[in-house]
UniProtKB/TrEMBL annotation:
Record-given protein name: Ig-like domain-containing protein
Segments traversing the membrane: 223-241
InterPro entries the UniProt entry points to: HEPN_DZIP3, Ig-like_dom, Ig-like_dom_sf, Ig-like_fold, Ig_I-set, Ig_sub
PROSITE patterns to which the protein is assigned, alphabetical: IG_LIKE (PS50835)
Record keywords: Membrane, Transmembrane, Transmembrane helix
Keyword set includes Methyltransferase: no
Residues of the Ig-like domain: 274-341
Superkingdom of origin organism: Eukaryota
SMART domains per UniProt: IG (SM00409)
Annotated organism of origin: Mytilus coruscus
Amino acid sequence: MSYNHYINIIYHIFKVIKAVFAYDFTCPQPEQWNLIAETQKCPRKDYICLLDEVELKDTAACKSGGPRIENNGFKAVLNNQHLNTKVCYSTRFQPLQFSSLRNSKCVFEKSLCSEEGQVIADNGTSKTDRSCRCDYCRGYALINNTIRPCMPSKEDCTCYLKTCSANEVLSPDYRCVKEKEQLGNHTCSRLLDKNSIESGTAVVNPMHDFATRYYDKVYRYRAIAVCWILIGILIVLFLLLKFESLRFWNYWDILQNRFTDCRNTCKKDYIVEPLEEIVKCLEGETVTLSCKVNKERTAGTWFKDGMKLNGESPDIKLVDDGKFHKLEIRNVKVEDRGYYTLNIKKIVCSSLLLVLGVTPEQINYLRLTYLLETVAQPVVKKIFDREFHPSKLRQTLDKNKSKTLDLLRKRKHLNKEEYDMLFPVKVVEYCLKIKLREYDFHKIKDEKKKNLAKTIENEVSTLYNNVKGNHKVSFTTFEPGSMIVVLKLTSSKFSGFKILKNTIEKAVIDEGNIGNIKTESSRFSFIKVGDSSVPVSSEDFDIRLMMVLMKNLANFDISEKLPMEADISESADLSRIKFIRNKLEQNIDKQTLDEEFEENWKQLTEAVIRRDGTYEIICQELKKFKPSPHQCQSKM
């Protein structure tokens, strides 16, 4: 048997090794779901990809009857080709219903509680996220001044270092107490120490990702298989050395050349920068596939799905620019998707082009969204302006601030952005003049003046860091022919002129210095320049904010549920608008099936037309509206 036969044997052994380490099939990403369903010749609503509990791997299937819906905290899995229900893994949670359409696992991943100072307070459930707290043993406290555990997916759980006096420590309630009081009774429980965890007295969540245990077994079998393959290679090499007169290194050179020629990736000696493996673009865009070689004037041929491209199409341009081979596709269409291959001296580079088109379900979702924004919102605003006249809106809000609106903010019916929109922050500007000592204006150089101005700006900013509110200090200029520096102080969320003036006056006049810079009391001045505030207008309010204000300030009976069909009152129509708006906000996939679309469209248009009949023609036109891919991208 010649050495070529031995080389062939070793080459096939390497192919077996590659097969052993091949990637397992994984479920596609949501944007590829429809493309995979089409290749499988399966209707979009019937295509599923779920974890197979028997095979312990992702498995795709075509199940008639539409998507599988599971309750909160559960997901669908496959068991011997039958759909089964399983609770979410301990690392993920499902706060809403699970649908097998475009989903293969529970939607949300639990928070890690791994930011600075954070520790896990509770692992949560299959329906809720983990809750975190701050490590008071290391001096950390919650920035939102609460003592209860904090859920990162719903609120700010940032921890900060809280400073206590020398004879005090931080309690589990994040209060500075005497050290002997730390072990007393507190509203917040103490952290579990290391000994309680090792002794088994700590409460440990029993849920565990069962797939991890089995994957370890699979990889162990693979390792055993690889060991047997390596033993086989050693036996073959031993035979080569014993029965052939050629030296071992000659065999190695032949093997290396043969294996390199047969690789399915780009050859290093020719390809410097290969094609990008996956390229995504939208319909109508221009996309360029580029490959760089290390030699100029190297001939190359382009193929699409095995068919040679000659550049005859006006939208396809082939460019051979020295070391670069480029394929430019203008005005990309869905038909242009596929595998593009560049062949250079029998060396192949491939790239998969994915054209993200617009599905019918996405068009349904966008039509409902545009209907809410262009029709429903103006109708709601018209009713809102009738109840709260624009000229008296500011007065009405101020009147109900402490009685109602502050309570709504506290109960999180109004978020911070909405509350700030109702009560915009007032901004006040001040002018400061400070004369510096021990500096001669005529001798000091311009470069040193710039450094001095930056220093005085930083020192004054440091003075105002401990004053309540937001303050910004900026250098303006030096007064002509003197060492009097002029600064501008911009202050918001605070209107205490006297406190602001006393802060800088104490440093300049009483202490005679600001940081390391010495000052004179003469020529000091602190003057208010002016203030500004943003007017409040319903033009800036969205549907949710107007609904909250009408329900709590104008006593509208706006419900969270869909009203009865016979109820056509104004409050019922507002409830319908709110219900469909909330439904779209909670739609993670940004898609709406035809049956659901028709029902929502009917409810929404009838409610709007009853309140303002002028929008009937606009509603009819919007139902025929087909958004472009760029409009879809901006709304998704």
